[in-house]
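== Item description ==
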Amino acid sequence: MPGVKLTTQAYCKMLLHGAKYPHCAVNGLLVAEKQKPRKEHLPLGGPGAPHTLFVDCIPLFHGTLALAPMLEVALTLVSAGRLLGTALRL
């Protein structure tokens, strides 16, 4: 299984948002950079092995998510914002 890495911004944003609202569950998204495919095959888990780099974290809801339409609208807004290149400041 490929590894996972977080940027400092993504990690801190996720950690601090959870610390700000310790009484609520937080549902959100991790945003990853698109990686260039590698031609060489490296052993998994070793240095230089393929990994996913999460560059940002977007909190969406607090508490349990029971409404699928709310999630669909949130994902559409995040997707549109990313396509237009607008920075989401949450």
User: Anything to note?
Assistant: The mean pLDDT is 78. Residues 3-84 form one domain. Helices lie at 8-20, 68-84. The beta strands are 3-6, 26-32, 51-62.
